[in-house]
Structure formats: C-alpha cells, structure tokens
Amino acid sequence: MSLIESQVFAALGDPTRLKIISRLSDGEARPIGKLTAMTAISRQGVTKHLKMLEHAGLVINHRVGRESRFSLNPDGFRHAQSYLQTIERQWDNALDRLRLHIEDG
Using the 8-state DSSP alphabet, how is residue 64 labeled? Predict the structure, then answer.
C-alpha cells in the first residue's frame, strides 16, 4: 500500500469525515459554514476534518472571493478503487489456488 492509499483509507476511517464525504457526493461545492451546519461539531472541528480530507486528495478547496468551498476530488477515490481492485484480484487468485488444492486433494 502506498502512502496515497494509506492517507485515503485513514481519512475515510472517521465517521465525521464519511458524513462530510456523503454530503459532498451530490457534486455541489459547499462552504465550511454549510458543512458545519450538517454536523454536531464546531466549525474548527469541521475545518480539521476537511484539511485531512484535502491532504488525502479526497476533497478540493475552491476559493470564491473570500469564501472557501469544498468539493469531492474523484481522482482521490480512483487511487483507493485501484488499490481495492488489486487486493480483490489477489484474493480471487488465492481462493482459486485453494479450490484447486481441495479438488486435487
């Protein structure tokens, strides 16, 4: 697992960050204020979560005047998807070898 995948899965391992990702999944960029209103935590707390998601490449910060708006970054999720597909192929190969071993035994 590369550093990128590690950061992505670490970022997705928190329920608050998953809730933020879910709120952004409709494709609409939202300011911190709107994202804060959707949670039970402070603006500073949401900002920390957004910074971690941004560092992992899962969200993008767009400046619109003085306001920061956040949206999902599909490329960040593609890294995770690619990694999971690799793991899936490895498991499928291992299960195929086990099946052959059992059938031959």
Answer: E
Asked whether 25 and 72 are in contact (CB, 8 A), the reply is: yes
Domain count, the chain: 1
Residue 64 has pLDDT above 90, yes or no: no
pTM, entire model: 0.77
Q: Would the pLDDT of 63 be above 80?
A: yes
CA distances, 20 to each of 2, 3, 39, 90, 91 (Å)? 24, 22, 8, 31, 31
The pLDDT value recorded for residue 94 is 92
Strands 59-64 and 30-31: unpaired
Amino acid found at 99: R
CATH number at residue 50: 1.10.10.10
Q: Could you read off the pLDDT of 2-30 as tens digits, one per residue?
A: 666 778 888 888 999 999 999 999 999 99
Tokens 């597909």 sit on residue: 85
